[in-house]
Amino acid sequence: MIVPYNRSAAIEYANRWALSRNPEFYDYSQIGGDCTSFVSQCVYAGSGVMNYTPDFGWYYINANDKSPSWTGVQFFYDFMTNNQGMGPFAEERPLNSLLPGDVIQLANESGSFYHSLFLVAVRRTPRGRRYYVASHSQDALNRNLSTYNFQNIRGIHILGVRTDD
Q1: CA 164 to chain centre
Q2: How far apart are CA 62 and CA 52, in angstroms?
Q3: How far apart are CA 89 and CA 156, in angstroms?
Q4: 3-class DSSP state of 126
Q5: Which of 48, 53, 45 is nearest to 3 (CA)?
Q6: What is the pTM for the complete model shown?
Q7: How confident is the model at residue 127 (pLDDT cuts 50, 70, 90)?
């Protein structure tokens, strides 16, 4: 069964935990970064379903028992955009078609995607759209996307959630 992704619950989670840490999840900041774990927590708050498929799923049990997609930028993208099983699923979209509750990933000059951000707001201005994000590693809440340095960007639009109900 496919159910809607609860964007408002995901955004509420981001607003609550962007500048602190939920003690239910390990803080990976000192061992590679916590950005994708934080994004995963936000998406989980809006989906309520993990995928426990070994190696290729998307889940967190504890600091040492989690899927690569829970904390890895590329693994997160690969899971979300290819998931045919339980849990959230997504597609890559251009920035201008993303909604609050979606995910943005940034790439460096070599083309490697290295940072995951959670989109909390999109505002229209006379100069166009402004995108505001929440993140960990470089903790931020309602930070304007234009303040980041990056060479490439991709959007991950969450389409829905597969459950076993």
Answers
A1: 23
A2: 13
A3: 9
A4: coil
A5: 48
A6: 0.96
A7: confident
